Amino acid sequence: MPDPVGRQRHTRPRAPRADALRNRRRLVDAARHLFTAADQPVALEAVARSAGVGIGTLYRHFATREELVEAVYTAELDDVTDSADELLEQLPPEQALRAWILNYAHFISAKRGMLATLRDGWASGRIATPATRQRITSTLAKLLTAGASTGSFRTDIDPEDLTVMLLGIFTFTAAGPEEHRRDRLVDLAMDALRPR
Fold first, then answer.
1. Beta carbons within 8 Å of 46's beta carbon, 6+ residues apart
2. pLDDT 10s digits, 150-161
3. 125/151 same-domain check
4. Contact 133/104 with Cβ under 8 angstroms?
5. Residues 106, 55 share a domain
6. Contact between 161 and 189 (Cβ < 8 Å)
7. How far is 93 from 149, CA to CA, in rounded Å?
């Protein structure tokens, strides 16, 4: 019934229901598993089926394939970026950076079923690159700063340049005929960081 005085009632937005949150988690987990195991893009119907929900539920949470891929990518990126601090506590900066780069390489190579969608989404602007790429660049900056402070790395390295270099290496070598080159290319990148 309308308010006789004409005032609008202000209500707080509702928190998502527990079953909706559970379904979203199941969809992201199913997509993570299927995308990692597949060499080709996975049908969204297969993701819904694997999560035990209908395709309508999937589309209520993720309107496009790109949204689902971004959700999986973002969730897994947390693990990768968070590992830098632990590596710096356990290893000298040069070893910590190399270990982190190899973790990042594994993260990218595990996305082989998602790479085409990620590339298309980034190129079209449907998936925001600045936030995810900035997280990688910030993590690399932390590792480079630690190495520069011990004299292990040059002080003139732009972390964004290293991010672009690594993305190129990993995208080119991800689970394809060039995968064997990855470690050699990482060694070349590490060598470029050392003081001359």
1. 34
2. 999 999 999 999
3. yes
4. no
5. no
6. no
7. 9
